[in-house]
Design goal:
Helix content is 37%, strand content 22%. By secondary structure, the protein is an alpha+beta fold. Helix 4 crosses helix 5 and helix 7 runs antiparallel to helix 8. It contains ten helices and eleven strands. It has two domains: 183 residues, 2-Layer Sandwich (Ribosomal Protein S5, domain 2), CATH 3.30.230; 139 residues, Alpha-Beta Plaits (2-Layer Sandwich), CATH 3.30.70. Strand 9 and strand 10 form a beta hairpin. The strands form two sheets. Strands 1, 2, 4, 5, 6 and 7 form a six-stranded antiparallel sheet that branches. Strands 3-11-8-10-9 form a five-stranded antiparallel sheet.
């Protein structure tokens, strides 16, 4: 293992959030899942040489990165604080900074150098990349700025880790294939979350919708157009606890039946997406939420919001991610319906609602 000179003074990297459209929890046990990237909720990272451990104490200010303008937020606290989030705008709301990786916000990690031992998921991931490149004696500081809400099932930790690895690769002038990046991110996810399926790691580096099964991501076709509302309950998801609850219930004959149901619903959704059958997609989402309720990973606040979305005319609705809090999804077929559903979701007590267009080939 040797120290190396960087190819540039600063390496830059970024990654985006994701939502699991269908298949969370059961994907850990071999069933498929479908995930969608959210390119407007991003993490940006800067990597540079860290001559001493002080680099982790007094880091320079991180720039105020602005996310892509294709993700709509209306009403709610963030909209009230930022004039760009007024009705009809497409600005991404500002989120308060939180401790760095994997929690989001702004901060810095230091990786590499003599005696270094990783402690966090992102540190394990960057360390794995450095070992792969045969570079471990070079101390590197990675500064990260995240606009992804923390502990909401949106892949904050995976995206932060992916951005950190990409920035390190850029600093050192190393090529980085998506498959290798996903593998490094998965190292960090396993450390952060225990038994991680790999779907977050794959979705963080994907450029479109993916079907994920047994560690293998596959692009999937979509026909037509719909609107996906992502609603933040304001309650942190309890991923580790939810994984434990779901795993305990996915045992025995009843567990096998639930896994078969999950696989059928997810495969139905993939077929419905390919044919542009959005009402069918909605029904699959709602039925999958019912399965997640049976798994014990929903909550009163999630169930109340899902019910509000359905009462307002959503084609379907479900929790997304780990559950026990976090976010839910609602599907709409036109903007007027999305606006009506959004209002009802706010009335049900959710913290923030965003609207994401899902677009595929013309129908």
């Amino acid at each position: 293992m040797t120290a190396v000179s960087p190819r540039r003074d600063v390496g830059h990297g970024s990654a985006h959030a994701k939502v699991i459209l269908i298949g969370e929890h059961t994907v850990v046990h071999g069933s498929p899942a479908i995930a969608l990237p959210i390119p407007a909720l991003t993490v940006h990272a800067r990597a540079m040489l860290a001559p001493d451990s002080a680099a982790t104490q007094d880091s320079p200010a991180v720039p105020d990165f602005t996310a892509a303008q294709d993700f709509t937020a209306t009403r709610g606290p963030a909209a009230a604080q930022n004039p760009r989030t007024a009705e009809g705008s497409t600005a991404v709301p500002d989120f308060p900074a939180a401790p760095l990786l994997p929690g989001g916000g702004a901060g810095v990690i230091r990786v590499g150098g003599p005696g270094f031992r990783p402690r966090t998921g992102p540190e394990f991931a960057v360390d794995a990349a450095l070992r792969h490149w045969n570079v471990t004696d070079t101390p590197i500081a990675v500064h990260t700025e995240s606009r992804i809400p923390v502990a909401r099932g949106l892949g904050s930790s995976a995206a932060s880790t992916a951005a950190a690895v990409r920035a390190t690769a850029a600093l050192l002038g190393r090529s980085l294939e998506d498959a290798d990046l996903a593998a490094f991110v998965q190292v960090g996810e396993q450390h952060s979350h225990g038994r991680a399926s790999g779907v977050d790691a794959a979705a963080a580096v994907s450029h479109g919708p993916i079907r994920f099964r047994a560690g293998v991501p596959t692009p999937i076709p979509i026909t037509g157009r719909a609107l996906l509302l992502v609603a933040d309950t304001g309650v942190s998801a309890g991923t580790r606890r939810a994984v434990g609850i779901a795993t305990a219930r996915l045992t025995g004959q009843r567990g096998l039946e639930m896994l078969r149901s999950a696989e059928g619903l997810t495969e139905d959704a993939a077929t419905q997406l390919a044919h542009g059958d959005w009402p069918g997609v909605g029904r699959s989402l709602t039925r999958f939420h019912e399965l997640l309720v049976d798994l014990g990973v929903s909550s009163d606040v999630l169930d109340r919001a899902v019910g509000a979305a359905l009462d307002a005319g959503a084609l379907g609705a479900k929790l997304t991610g780990g559950g026990l809090g976090g976010c839910l999804l609602a599907l709409a077929d036109h903007p007027a319906a999305a606006a009506r559903i959004s209002e009802r979701l706010y009335d049900s007590g959710v913290h923030q609602v965003w609207t994401l267009p899902i677009e595929g080939e013309p129908k």
